[in-house]
Each structure stands twice: as structure tokens, then as C-alpha cells.
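Lab notes, practical 5.
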Amino acid sequence: VDKSPNQYVERSLLASDQLYFKDQDYKMALRRYQQLEDVAANRQNVLTALLGETRCQFQLAVYDQCINAANKILQLAFADDASKLEAQFYRGKSQLAQQQPDQALASLTTVYQNNKAEMGAEAMYDVADIQFSQEKYDDAQKTIFALKDRYADYDYWRAKAFILLADIYVKTGDNFQAKSTLQSIIDNYEGADLRNIAKDKLQAIKEIGKA
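Output from the prediction step:
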């Protein structure tokens, strides 16, 4: 790479950007992906470079750049559907981070409607969270119940969604249902992270009841 141009530089960039990304050195990985975009001689390497850029830029919280790279992918006639969905995902997450909920809602809805893997589950949770923040509690509740059925294999996002459901119950004055929902997570979910959040929220509701 340092002695570019040469016949090996493109293959070297393809290898090195992945190594830097695996080591979570996102700044160097981004630099390599950008170099790859500049020298790529075939379509697949252009797409690989742009996808790598979106991932790194999101990790580095440079959301404007992430959105720009994602838009480039979405405008590529030769980009496959999976790559376009991933671009929509990172664009939506970046829009959400930039306090652009309506734009994020459109991007993330497209993702979960077309992806039944974990990326779709996360996108659907984010949609419910946006609806909650907009005080559209009925819509958020419907999204959560749909997530439960659609992504039955992804316990983390189902549990996280039900913590959000408990928040909806609190907002709508149904503390009994909120406590039951949180207790169900405490009893059935194995991960300590979300169980601890559920315990804290349950305790807070109980303290309100004592006041």
C-alpha cells in the first residue's frame, strides 16, 4: 500500500482494511476502505469499500459521513439487496443519532420489513422506540408485539422491547401491567444486563407506589 501504485495494492487494501476493522481500529480501517474506493477496479471492491466506510463511520460517530456513504450505496445500480439494506440500517441509525426521527423511521422500517435476521430485529426495536418518544404509544405497543412474533429467535431484542413496553404501561397509567412485564423479564431472561435494567425499573415503580 505504501508503494502504491502497484499490482498488489488493491488486494493488500482488501486484506488490511478487514484486519484493522477486526482489531476495532476504526480510524485506520476507514482510511484503508477510502483508499480502496479510490483504486478499486471492479464493482464488488467499490461496494466492499463503501460498506466498510459506513460501518467505520458509524462506529466513529461521524454520522454525516456515514449517511453520505450509505446514500452512495443506495444509488449504485449494481449494489445487491443485502448491501442496500445494510446501508439503510446504518443510515437510519445515523439519522436517529442526529435527532432526525422521521427520516430514521423511514429507513429503519424498510430494514425490518425486508430483513428477518438480527439487523431487522434491532431496526424494529428502534422503530418502536421512536414511536414511544413521539408519544405514539398504541403504535409502539403494536410494533413491540409484532417484533415478539417476527423475531422469536432474538431474545435480547425481544426482552429489550418488553422493557420498552413496560415504559409504555407506566406512561399510560397501567403500573400493574408494567410490573408484571418487568417481572417476566427478570424471571425468564438470562442476560444480566437487561435483567438489571428490569430490576431497577421495577423497584422504581414500587417506590412510586409507596409514595
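Observations recorded by the TA: The CA atoms of residues 81 and 182 lie 38 Å apart. Residues 192-210 form the longest helix (19 residues).
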